[in-house]
Each structure stands twice: as C-alpha cells, then as structure tokens.
Design goal:
Layout: H1 2-41, E1 42-51, E2 55-59, H2 61-68, E3 79-83, E4 88-97, E5 102-110, E6 118-127, E7 130-145, E8 158-173, E9 185-205, E10 210-236, H3 237-243, E11 253-270, H4 273-282, E12 287-288, E13 292-312, E14 315-333, E15 343-364
Parallel strand pairs: 12-15
Antiparallel strand pairs: 1-4, 1-15, 2-15, 3-7, 4-5, 5-6, 6-7, 7-8, 8-9, 9-10, 9-15, 10-11, 11-13, 13-14, 14-15
C-alpha cells in the first residue's frame, strides 16, 4: 500500500513538473496548422530609407543647354531654386492577401531624418499585376532671381513657395519568369503641380527677317501650373530579392542594388497674367504670342549601390547602401508655332537636380 502511494506521489510530482512542457507542446501542436494557414494567407512588407543629405542644383534648362553646347546667346541662367528638403526619411509598409492577389499599403516621407514634417504621402492598391498609386506631396523652397530685377515689371527678386503636387498612376507589373534578370513595371500617370520657372522671350525681327531675341529676354514666374500625362517605368533589385523574383531573386548575400522610378510626359502650362503684363511692358508693348504652353517633362530617380539579402525561414531581410540621383526637367513650346511681327513669344524651362547617399532597410514575411 505504501509502495502504491509512493509511486502515485512520484508520478504526480513528475506530471506536475512536466505539465508546462506538455501544455506548451500541445498548444503548439493545436495552433500550428492555424498559424501556418494565416501566414500562408497573408504577406507583409516594410521598409525605411534615409537620405541624410540631399545636394540640390537648379536653373533654366534651355540656358544651361546653350552654355553646354558652346552657344553664345543672351539666354543665360538667371534663376535658382533653393529646395527646403535637404534630408529625408521614407517609411513604407504593405499588406498582401496571397490567395486573393490583392494588396494595399502606404509610404510616408518626412523632410528631416527620422522625425520631421510629412511632405509626401503615397497610397497604393494592388490587384493581381495592376497597381493604382496616388501620391500627394509638397514642393517647398525659395525661388531667386539672379539677374536685373528692375526689368521684372514689379516681380520680387525672390519668393518663398510651398506648392502641392499630385500624382495618380496606374502601373502594370510585367510578368517575369525565373530566367528574367529582374522585374519591371510600366504604367501611365497624371501629374498636377506648380513650380517656379525662368521664361525666355523671342520676337520676329523684321530687319533680320527672322525670329530673334526679344529686347528683354528673361523673366520668371514663381507659380507656373503644370498638368502632365506621362509614361512610367521602374524596378528595384532589392525588392526582387525579397520577393524571390527573377534571377536576382535567387541571390543571397551581397550583390548589386539598382532602384529606379522614372516618368516621361507631355502636358500643358500657362503664363500668368502678372507675368504676361511684365513681358509685354518690357518688350515695347508687344502682345504676348501665347500664354498657353505645351510642356515636356522628364522625371528620374535612380539609386545604385550594394545590397545584402538574407532569407531566414519565412523572414526575408534586405539592406542597401547606395547613391541616389534624381530630378526633373521641364521645357515648353508655344502651340501657335513661330512668333509673328508685333508679338513676343515667351516659353518657360526649368531643371531641378538632387543627389546624395541613401541607406535602405527592408523586411518581408
């Protein structure tokens, strides 16, 4: 009898001591299929990128082209834009429903490192190979006139601006096979924004019987509105590696990091009434040939560097260090053709260029 009691006590003590382990094992056994199903149903992606310092350059694209090709003309660069965003942090996150081929997410860009005022918000919605992307951001800085301000017709030599930019894009992810080097998306987009620009003027010179430079060649407009329809393309080798797409998606460890998103577009812009009056008054009362303009735009953003990717079970981790180059060039022509006698033709152009180091970290699970 005593032996039975002792055996029962020993068994009870062993059971009590093993109970946490048995309970945990049973719980894992019960919940593992459910957890596996949930993980197989959802996928998540997140990243952050830091541009600790952006170096900016700006000016008149047409005047800079004259100088580059060695043309000696009165059309010279008399305009500069100082952008306010010199340091940027970007946060991005997305949730994907695998079995539905559906995803959604957002990205935020601040105008300082880690903590700062949000100057860009982008939301996206994925359905199979299509993505709708809406971006709202701010273009903030100071426009400075470097030429003779007495001939600007009352326009100030410098002006602060804080303009809104809206991009609406429809993207298509081109299907990729394991033999393709990387994935590529293309798409169509619409952009609406205001930007300071330099304006250069031409007249019809009857003595030369040809188009010639106006008596006062250059002006500027601090808030020219652009509406542009564009073609887009882009790719990101780090994202391919995290999502295991294409040849680059099979790489682990160190490899080349290349990320780009570019757009090429055509649209419209318009010279404002105050600038129209200043141009006409400074050029002997000639009438402005056309306030409406055809705008041609190139927008580019390229990062080249080194990436490191590691796959740990369901977690895919990436880190990239590179150098970012980006900017936009806009040049305009009048839709009315060659200027006629008694008129003055005015067409704007501008370029913005930035470059600096970039660090990016990403995770997918």
């Amino acid at each position: 009898m005593k032996e039975c009691i002792v055996i029962r006590l020993v068994f009870l003590i062993v059971l009590i001591s093993l109970w946490p382990l048995l309970y945990t094992s049973a719980e894992e056994t019960i919940t593992q299929p459910t957890t596996t199903k949930v993980i197989d149903y959802f996928s998540s992606y997140g990243s952050f990128a830091i541009l600790p310092y952006n170096n900016w350059a700006s000016g008149d694209w047409d005047a800079s082209s004259d100088k580059f090709f060695g043309y000696n003309t009165p059309r010279v660069n008399q305009f500069k834009v100082d952008m306010a965003q010199t340091a940027t942090t970007i946060y991005e996150g997305g949730l994907f429903f695998k079995k539905l081929n559906f995803g959604l997410g957002a990205a935020l860009k601040t105008d300082n490192n880690f903590i700062g005022q949000i100057n860009q918000f982008m939301g996206f919605l994925n359905i199979n190979v299509f993505e709708v992307r809406i971006e709202y951001s701010r273009l903030k800085g100071t426009a400075r006139w470097l030429g003779d301000s007495t001939r600007l017709g009352g326009l100030p030599p410098s002006v602060d601006f804080d303009n809104q930019l809206l991009n609406i894009d429809l993207l298509y992810d081109i299907p990729i096979s394991p033999q393709d080097p990387f994935s590529l998306y293309i798409g169509l987009g619409y952009s609406s924004y205001n930007l300071p620009v330099q304006i250069n003027c031409l007249i019809y010179d009857e003595q030369r019987d040809s188009v010639w430079w106006a008596p006062v060649v250059s002006f500027y407009q601090p808030d020219m509105k652009f509406s542009v329809y564009s073609f887009l393309l882009g790719f990101d080798t780090m994202k391919d590696a995290l999502f295991r797409r294409g040849i680059l998606g099979t790489f682990e460890g160190f490899s080349l990091w290349a990320w780009t998103q570019d757009r090429f577009g055509v649209g419209s812009s318009k010279i404002s009434d105050p600038v129209k009056q200043a141009v006409e008054a400074a050029n002997d009362g000639r009438t402005l040939w056309s306030a409406s303009q055809i705008a041609m735009m190139v927008d580019y953003n390229l990062t080249l560097g080194i990436q490191y990717v590691k796959h740990i079970d369901r977690f895919h981790i990436g880190l990239g260090i590179g150098y970012n180059i980006g900017g936009q060039t806009v040049t305009c022509v009048t839709p009315k053709g060659t200027v006629e006698s008694g008129y003055v033709d005015a067409s704007p152009s501008v370029y913005l260029f930035h470059h600096g180091p970039m660090i990016k970290g990403s995770i997918r699970f």
